[in-house]
Amino acid sequence: MIDINFKTGMHIQKIGNDTFYIDKTMIIDELIDKDGIREKEVVLVTRPRRFGKSVALQTIDYFFNIESKDRACEFFSDKKIAKTDKIKFLGTRPIIYLDFKNPGVTDFNELLQSIIYTFDDEIDKFILNPNIDDITKKELLEIKENIYKDEPTANIVQDLLSYFIDLYYYTYKIEPIVLIDEYDSFVLEMLNHEDIDKVISFYRTFFGRALKGNRNLHFAVLAGVTELTKNSVFSAMNNVYISNVLDSPNMPFTSYFGFTQDEIDPYIKLLDLESERERLKNYFDGYKIGGLELYNPDSISKTFDELKLNKNTPLSFKWVETGSQNLLTHILEKRFDKKQLSEELLSLIDKKEIEISIDKEFNIDKLNKEEAFYTFLLYAGYLTATKKENDKAAVVIPNVEVQDEIIRLTTRILNDGSDENYIDTKKAFSTLNIPDMEKQTKKLFKDVYHYDIKNDEKTYRNSLAVLINLLGVYTVKTEQNVSNGRLDIALIPFKSENRRSVLLELKVARTEKDIEKKHKEALEQIKRKEYVTYFNENQQKDMIALTVVFNGYDVSIKDVSDVIY
């Protein structure tokens, strides 16, 4: 077994020679010039969850932190940044590192308490510092006493960051660096809460007082999922450089978040997974940012950890439950009030590209509208942009991992019993009641493709596969290779379900008169190309074979199970 640690969530200080690590230390080169002067005053990096933002901030912290210089020297000695003149700035700055990740905040007071906790170590560190004068220590003790009251006031908490920047500066006689991870997590947690306006107002003051034109600050780097800009958090600041998922090629910071194919290929070779390269690429690659095509780092790392033990491990969704997912579930529930799937969402699940308008101002009212809804999906990593022009972007689902998750979320929402059409469709396909299958398929195609439907077999096949996938009844396989050809759709029941496997062969009839002819063609194709051999022996015992013929919105389905051999 390959002795490499692929575990995720490890702090950069614990990374060793046996750890899966992609060198992204040249991010430091983007932050300072040859004389150590900051290139940008405030940098905001927005990327999807689990995309390497925390590791990037830890890298900046470990490099510059004056308190970890000795340990950092060894770590950075063989890294890319060590080959530049900027290595001389290692261990030269005090760091204020704040992590705002705190899921489960339910109101504004809890938010204030959570932010207070992030400053707790900073307060204790200065109180215990022998070089701090008694007056300052007394002041810190008073601050600690005040902020730990049952209901701390926003007036006290919103000045904490500004206060500590000044305190670091006067203590160390040099400007500190501020690093804030998941800066927007509290906003995402509370977008659907009545206190959201208080949260935005607090953020605006908290960041504005600390980061706008602060002569005692070297620079700040904030990382999160969304941009809280324009009329919200950074409305009064004109010194924020933003790197986001819509970055153009060669812009700063684009290559430091996510893994390229070239970066992971050595590990694919080391793990003897060359035969799985395309499968891994289809499942986890596909994010297009700054002219690069990128893997989700967390997903591929966890997958390597599984595959090093067993190469036959099925690929699976690796994201954990996050505030973004909870919010997405809420938004999808709102968008499904019309009792039908949106044409755009079905098209996306169907691997099609759609054009969206970008609206970065996220609030719960706007997120129920198309522009902000799809922009949120883009920023949260459920979509990726293939091209951008002004405030328009063409977007697709990046890979199979995300496609499976959107199907899972959508299925869970539709399966709550409130959508009669969905329940009727699920029942029809669960029982394989052919008249009901015809009725429900026709209805859905009319609802979704109410403007136009392309009269080609691929469109029908993909759309029908998406429909069945969303029912949560079968594992759906399309265009599967068999010895003599490619069958259209195979439905494999979940292990816990006592259902029959299903073979579907599709045809398109140009006129109503051609329908019977197309059924015969489909049957002959099933027999001639021996599509039943795709199914294993147990699946073949009670398998049902259906020929499906589309004519516009009409659909005709026949059971040919008794005549396919």
From TrEMBL:
InterPro entries: AAA-ATPase-like_dom, PDDEXK_9. Residues 17-234 form the AAA-ATPase-like domain. It comes from the Bacteria. PANTHER family: AAA-ATPASE-LIKE DOMAIN-CONTAINING PROTEIN, CONSERVED PROTEIN, WITH A WEAK D-GALACTARATE DEHYDRATASE/ALTRONATE HYDROLASE DOMAIN. This is AAA-ATPase-like domain-containing protein.
